[in-house]
């Protein structure tokens, strides 16, 4: 077994839960992941992460969404650890070189999206340019609420998977 999995599996429950919360800020998801230990490998970890995530309800998903800053912003609605802030900044690196026009358009559409759906726009931003993120936001802003929360949950799942891999590497 990989040493990173041994360490994760041997953490005290509260420490393991805190580590999982950095990857996805749904309390129920983090508890479920903590209780699901031990993990043998990345495949089993990611499989269980998905299984638990999709067993949760919308309130749990919304809890996770609140821990992300809006695209183009640095501060989330809820407190983030230093590691979460760094991960968010790296994931949103495509915005760092955005023109002022794109930044302004993202800010306005983020505001409209939040008003329409009651939660922030969630997208797995890793590797996307600011223009790509803006296009995704434009393509989703007119969705039906039921469809959009599910799409946002899918994006959160992608983010969680990336962060679990990062957690194991650190």
Give a verbal description of the structure.
The chain is 68% helix and 0% strand. The model has no long low-confidence stretch (mean pLDDT 89). The protein has one domain: Oxo-4-hydroxy-4-carboxy-5-ureidoimidazoline decarboxylase (UraD-like), CATH 1.10.3330.10. The chain contains nine helices and no strands. The chain has 170 residues and is mainly α.
Fill in the keyword field for this structure:
170 residues; mainly alpha; UraD-like; globular
Give the total of domains: 1
CATH level-3 fold name: UraD-like
As a whole number of angstroms, the C-alpha radius of gyration is 16 Å
CATH superfamily: Oxo-4-hydroxy-4-carboxy-5-ureidoimidazoline decarboxylase
Write the H/E string, N to C.
HHHHHHHHH
């Amino acid at each position: 077994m990989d040493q990173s999995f041994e360490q994760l599996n041997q953490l005290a429950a509260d420490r393991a839960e805190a580590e999982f919360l950095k990857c996805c800020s749904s309390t129920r998801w983090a508890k479920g992941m903590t209780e699901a230990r031990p993990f043998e490998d990345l495949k089993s970890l990611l499989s269980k992460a998905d299984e638990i995530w999709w067993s949760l309800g919308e309130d749990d998903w919304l809890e996770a969404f609140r821990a992300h800053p809006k695209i183009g912003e640095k501060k989330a609605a809820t407190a983030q650890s230093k590691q979460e802030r760094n991960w968010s900044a790296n994931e949103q690196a495509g915005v760092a070189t955005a023109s002022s026009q794109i930044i302004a358009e993202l800010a306005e559409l983020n505001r409209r999206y939040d008003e329409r759906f009651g939660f922030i726009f969630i997208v797995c931003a890793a590797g996307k340019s600011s223009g790509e993120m803006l296009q995704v936001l434009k393509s989703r802003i007119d969705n039906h609420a039921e469809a959009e929360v599910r799409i946002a949950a899918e994006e959160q799942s992608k983010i969680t998977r990336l962060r679990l891999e990062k957690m194991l590497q650190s």
